TrEMBL record:
Alphabetized Pfam families for the sequence: HATPase_c, HisKA, PAS_9
EC number: 2.7.13.3
Catalytic activity: ATP + protein L-histidine = ADP + protein N-phospho-L-histidine
GO molecular-function terms, A-Z: ATP binding; phosphorelay response regulator activity; phosphorelay sensor kinase activity; protein kinase activator activity
Domain Histidine kinase, chain residue ranges per copy: 152-360
Listed InterPro entries: BphY/WalK/GraS-like, HATPase_C_sf, HATPase_dom, His_kinase_dom, HisK_dim/P_dom, HisK_dim/P_sf, PAS, PAS-like_dom_sf
Keywords noted in UniProt: ATP-binding, Kinase, Membrane, Nucleotide-binding, Phosphoprotein, Transferase, Transmembrane, Transmembrane helix, Two-component regulatory system
Name of this chain's protein: histidine kinase
Predominant place of localization: membrane
Length: 362
């Protein structure tokens, strides 16, 4: 979109008009016209003076139909007015505008999603505004389809998995001849239940709809509860806790327990045989710091930037789906905290740390 603005000449691109105007115009139209990205140019009165073939293809309008018109002919009413205000402010100050996402309307009435860049260009004494955009409608629809699929698949999995979990547990308890197989089956069912929950969480995160029920929680008590639960499944490893008294965080207890379980499970799976796991809890003036450390594992530096991405798996020991650290990261960031990893190759160890805001006055 372009606007009638007075841009600061010190902040814009300046092009001196050469004498060979016709040659310059021919070169310009050849280069811009062949661009695969849609390009629109307006004058300082917000009148369209040029669009390339890619722009015509996306919008359905021809150059002849839009010449002299205001780009608001594409306005759909679906884009926030705050974005248009931001565009105006940027161009007034002579800066370029790069958007996160806009929604425009084609000639046939259909909406399309786009990322756009708009920048002012000074040619002699005249000011022009160039818009280049990328149509991301297909990607947007694919994201929406994926989100719907995740929700449907996760919900459809939950009911049969709950029944199967109960049946496999009863089979393990009451059928000695096949107790090992039943126990293995039960563990796999639990993993699938965790996957279903993770998929629903993932959809919440991506849609920005995570709801936190924040209350003052005793982090020391929550750490101990979580360790007691994990210790029952991992009796080969001693889990040590270092925690001061009275560390209360302003957080969602259920979500933070999920973070602790994910980090503990990750630490236990990758620790050397029978080595201890160490959990520490500290606090400063405004944050609680929780650390989960194992021994025997090392994460190469070039992999650390990716470990909090969805479906990323560390090594080959993990039986999970690569969502645990991603979910932990999203939950901590939603609380306004930070999460990071440190790892050492010599006498190897890996430690995950995260912070949460303390309750005021704690």
């Amino acid at each position: 979109m372009a606007y009638v603005v007075k841009a600061s000449p010190r902040r814009v691109s300046r092009v001196e008009k050469p004498d060979n105007t016709h040659v310059e115009d021919a070169v310009f139209r050849s280069l811009v016209g062949a661009s695969p990205r849609p390009v629109l140019i307006t004058n300082d009165r917000a009148q369209i003076i040029y669009v390339n073939t890619a722009w015509e293809h996306v919008t359905g309008y021809t150059l002849a139909e839009v010449i002299g018109k205001n780009p608001r002919i594409l306005k759909s009413g679906k884009t926030s007015l705050k974005i248009y205000d931001e565009i105006r402010k940027k161009l007034i100050s002579g800066q370029q505008f790069v958007s996160s996402e806009l929604i425009n309307r084609k000639k046939n009435g259909r909406l399309f999603n786009l990322y756009t860049m708009i920048f002012p260009v000074s040619v002699g004494t005249s000011m022009y505004y160039v818009q280049i955009f990328e149509d991301v409608t297909i990607q947007k629809h694919a994201e929406e389809y994926r989100s719907t699929f995740l929700k449907t698949a996760a919900h459809d999995m939950r009911t049969p998995l709950s029944s199967l979990a109960i049946m496999s547990e009863m089979l393990a308890l009451h059928s000695p001849n096949c107790s090992k197989e039943a126990t293995d089956l039960h563990e796999e069912v639990i993993r699938l239940q965790e996957l279903a929950t993770s998929l629903l969480d993932m959809r919440e995160f991506e849609n920005g709809k995570m709801i936190l029920e924040r209350v003052p929680i005793d982090l020391g008590a929550l750490v101990k509860e979580t360790v007691d639960t994990a210790q029952g499944s991992w009796q080969d490893h001693l889990i040590e806790i270092e925690s001061p008294l009275d560390v209360f965080a302003d957080a969602d207890k259920v979500r933070v327990r999920r973070v602790l379980m994910n980090l503990l499970d990750n630490a236990l799976r990758h620790a050397s045989e029978s080595s201890p796991i160490h959990i520490s809890l500290k606090k400063d003036d405004s944050n609680a710091l929780v650390s989960v450390k194992n021994h025997g594992s090392y994460i190469p530096r070039d992999q650390r930037k990716d470990i909090f991405k969805s479906f990323y798996k560390i090594g080959t020991k993990s039986k999970g789906y690569g969502l645990g650290l991603y979910i932990a990261s999203e939950i901590i960031h939603a609380h306004g905290g930070k999460i990071w990893v440190e790892s050492r190759e010599r006498n190897p160890y890996t430690a995950f740390h995260f912070t949460l805001p303390l309750v005021s006055g704690n």
